[in-house]
TrEMBL record:
Main location: membrane
Organism from which the protein derives: Populus davidiana
One of the Pfam families matching this protein, by short name: PMR5N
Residue ranges annotated for the Trichome birefringence-like C-terminal domain, each copy included: 137-409
Classification via InterPro entries: TBL, TBL_C, TBL_N
Occurrences of domain Trichome birefringence-like N-terminal (ranges): 83-136
The protein's name: Uncharacterized protein
Keyword Membrane: yes
Keyword field contains Membrane: yes
Origin organism lineage: Eukaryota, Viridiplantae, Streptophyta, Embryophyta, Tracheophyta
Membrane topology classification: Single-pass membrane protein
Source species, domain of life: Eukaryota
Similarity comment text for this entry: Belongs to the PC-esterase family. TBL subfamily.
Localization in the cell: Membrane
Length: 415
């Protein structure tokens, strides 16, 4: 990882006077001419010396300011010191300049995530910014980012949490577009929970931000043959999702998975694991998850040109359900100071391990710990259906915006 503090090397030159030509000093005229010649050189050197000092001083004084000025226009200070700064270790600070957009004015923010529009009265949850301990995330500069994304293809792959991040990024980017009608879904599709593909085009900048629904990343097959009655479907852990070929040739590719890898979404619906032609009824979820990630990692190494495509994997996002009932949220008014164990996730650990074993560069967006502190920012009862609270998804604007600010920081550091 690169850092925010950029080192500077200054090459200093020393001025020297070469050895003077030899001359015959036999006559007074030659001697006088030589003295006059040396006097003129001393005058010139005397005049230049203070000027050189002023130039050098100005160089040292102005260079940092100029560097910062250029960094402020859509570039970041991440270039050299990311190894010294863990972007995901820090705390949430109150910032009146947030939020960065209004969900009611963004046509791509689902109504179910627009907590303010759904009756939430307090607004403080909108005004928290993530602050790493040893550095700063560059302030969001929408015009610089739009230029950086010109002619690019951004692809999100994953579950509904990925779709929320996709919506967040589009809303952030639209704040810099004058003609809002130039931003549109290419197939005129509405955003729904089950739709497998959405693509929003920013026509003025010739780029798309796409979402592919692939909650497991591997193939989900219905009604396999010659299996016990309780098996209604299987996950082929050794096969990538059948739409994975559409993720290739992207410039920015962001993955996530995890929230569907639970008994309620798997075994209780009759979904079990399959390797080759064998259904593994006794395989545990953590083991299956690791096998699926190994399949994903192999696919990335064999299929994705990482010289073109910057691949990200976002870690697991914790929920904040009440310990007494899974129908109630354990929400706070402000970010909490202790994660209470929610910063620990077997899914996140497995993702980190799988990426660490890759032979190609992948960037992990390790957002588990920072998100665990935001028990104030879930949709909760402000989802348009108060009788069914949502303690997993996030309000927009909100936490996913910060994930995207970090994502964009990595991209801008490559400029």
């Amino acid at each position: 990882m690169s850092t925010f503090n950029r080192s500077k090397s200054i090459n200093q030159r020393t001025l020297g006077v070469g050895t003077p030509r030899t001359a015959s000093f036999g006559s007074p005229r030659v001697k006088l001419t030589s003295v006059s010649h040396w006097f003129r050189w001393l005058v010139v050197i005397g005049a230049l010396f203070p000027f050189s000092i002023a130039i050098a001083g100005g160089y040292f004084y102005l260079l940092p300011s100029l560097t910062q000025a250029f960094q402020g226009f859509g570039t970041s200070k991440l270039n050299d010191s990311m190894e010294e700064c863990n972007l995901f270790e820090g705390n949430w600070v109150f910032d009146e300049s947030y939020p960065l957009y209004n969900a009611s004015e963004c046509p791509f923010a689902e109504q179910g995530f627009n907590c303010l529009g759904n009756g939430r009265r307090d607004e403080d949850y909108l005004r928290w910014r993530w602050k790493p301990k040893r550095c700063d995330i560059p302030r969001f500069n929408v015009h610089g980012i739009l230029e950086r994304l010109r002619n690019k293809r951004v692809v999100f792959v994953g579950d509904s949490m990925s779709r929320t991040q996709w919506e967040s990024l589009i809303c952030l980017l639209m704040t810099g577009v004058e003609d809002k009608n130039s931003v549109y879904e290419i197939n005129n599709h509405n955003i729904t929970k089950r739709i497998r593909f959405l693509s929003v085009r920013f026509n003025s900048f010739n780029f798309t931000v796409e979402f592919f629904r692939s909650v497991f990343l591997v193939q989900h097959v219905w009604m396999p043959r010659h299996v016990p009655r309780r098996v209604r479907s299987t996950l082929k852990l050794d096969k990538m999702d059948d739409i994975s070929n559409q993720w290739v040739n992207s410039d920015i590719l962001i993955f996530n998975t995890g929230h569907w890898w639970v008994p309620q979404k798997l075994f209780e619906t009759g979904c079990y694991f399959q390797v080759a032609n064998t259904v593994r009824l006794g395989m545990s979820i953590p083991v299956a998850f690791r096998m699926a990630l190994d399949t994903w990692a192999s696919w990335v190494e064999k299929t994705i040109d990482t010289n073109r495509t910057h691949v990200f994997f976002r870690t697991y996002e914790p929920s904040h359900w009440s310990e007494q009932s899974h129908r109630l949220c354990n929400m706070s008014d402000i970010p909490i100071s202790e994660a209470g164990g929610k910063d620990i996730s077997v899914f996140s650990d497995t993702i980190l391990e799988a990426v660490n074993n890759l032979t190609v560069p992948i960037t992990v967006l390790h957002i588990t710990s920072m998100s665990a502190l935001r028990s104030d920012a879930h949709v909760g009862k402000w989802n348009g259906n108060p009788s069914v609270p949502d303690c997993s998804h996030w309000c927009l604007p909100g936490v996913p915006d910060m994930w995207n600010e970090i994502l964009l920081s990595y991209l801008l550091s490559q400029s």
